[in-house]
Specification:
The chain has about 190 residues and is of the alpha/beta class. The chain is built from six helices and eleven strands.
């Protein structure tokens, strides 16, 4: 994408710099004069006076070595007034358990919309984290008839049992989320 699109800023988790693919990616970003913003849990990215991204993961003091690229993915919460959307990257169960320990008995994981972790993989979206997140809507980015069998049926059941309305790109096509200044939520899809 860096070779074909104009990119101003890349946001990356601090720990990713140790991976070969990331090193090559960062080299290309430097060649293209792209700003690289390295973040970790506790950082805030202000979009405007009413909108921010709260970086919840990775925690540089609790790096996960098991499948580190996925489990140290950025988990960020977009907050606009009283609306929030949680982006979970490719985290798996091991990271979800660490995140639950870090934010135990806190409401920071609660959100209106959840971008489901790791394409709805069976290795993610454990019951305990969904109970903390309490999403009204769950979005799953997944290719039709993908070789991994994503999303997993048990994950879909857990999401529905938590009361979330599930949208999937393989069934719904592109998913467009709009939130008005009055906090009215509208979700459009490209397919029925």
């Amino acid at each position: 994408m860096l070779e074909n699109l104009k990119v101003d800023t890349i946001i990356i988790g601090k720990q990713d710099a140790k991976y070969k693919n990331c090193t090559e990616f960062l080299k290309l970003a430097k060649e293209k004069n792209v700003e690289v913003l390295s973040v970790q849990a506790g950082d805030l990215i202000n979009i405007d006076k009413e909108t921010e991204f709260q970086i919840l993961w990775p925690d540089s003091s609790q790096m996960i070595s098991d499948n580190g690229i996925n489990n140290n993915s950025i988990m960020a919460k977009l907050v606009y007034k009283d609306f929030s959307m949680l982006f979970t990257g490719d985290i798996e169960e091991i990271a979800e358990k660490e995140i639950l320990k870090k934010y135990h008995k806190m409401t920071v994981l609660n959100c209106n919309i959840l971008k489901v972790a790791h394409h709805g993989s069976k290795s993610s979206s454990i019951q305990e984290i969904l109970e903390q997140i309490k999403p009204q809507v769950a979005l799953i980015g997944v290719g039709e008839e993908n070789r991994y069998g994503h999303p997993n049926g048990d994950v879909i059941s857990r999401l529905e049992n938590c009361g979330a309305k599930v949208f999937r790109t393989d069934w719904n096509g592109e998913i467009i989320v709009e939130i008005s200044r009055q906090l009215n939520l509208k979700i459009d899809t490209m397919l029925e």
